[in-house]
Amino acid sequence: xxxxxxxxxxxxxxxxxxxxxxxxxxxxxxxxxxxxxxxxxxxxxxxxxxxxxxxxxxxxxxxxxxxxxxxxxxxxxxxxxxxxxxxxxxxxxxxxxxxxxxxxxxxxxxxxxxxxxxxxxxxxxxxxxxxxxxxxxxxxxxxxxxxxxxxxxxxxxxxxxxxxxxxxxxxxxxxxxxx
Length: 179
Known about the structure:
Layout: H1 11-24, E1 29-32, H2 34-40, E2 49-54, H3 60-68, E3 72-74, E4 77-80, E5 83-92, E6 106-110, E7 113-117, H4 120-134, H5 137-149, H6 154-163, H7 167-177
Parallel strand pairs: 2-5
Antiparallel strand pairs: 1-2, 3-4, 4-5, 6-7
Helix pairs in contact: 2-4, 4-5, 4-6, 5-7, 6-7
């Protein structure tokens, strides 16, 4: 297991550590939400938490692994006493973006185990979901930041916006992408 400095770690460093330890212990999780946007924007956007979707109904192994890393559970959040700037939160499966629950996460090798998070396209859709459903204009900006750095399946994003009944969100997104 790699060591990190919890006092100064980045979201990506914490994700890689936690996700790989969970994977080594057969706890299947997917990183979702703002932390993914933070990673895909190279820190231009910064989230204060890491949201994971837990693909296992049992929290017993989860709690054991997190406790072994020094995390303490507080309701649905997990905090590390040395990591004041970030916390972990876990939700039960399935991972969904709006009405779409057929999510295929991006996978990365971390010290011989596979760790997962939303793909850049799904992260854009996730940010647009917050823009659509919560009127969060900052999430539209995050979607644009991601799209400027990573290949995006624009047709999938457009089709998803149409399915959410908000094709204008796609238009707003494309307008902000223009130079």
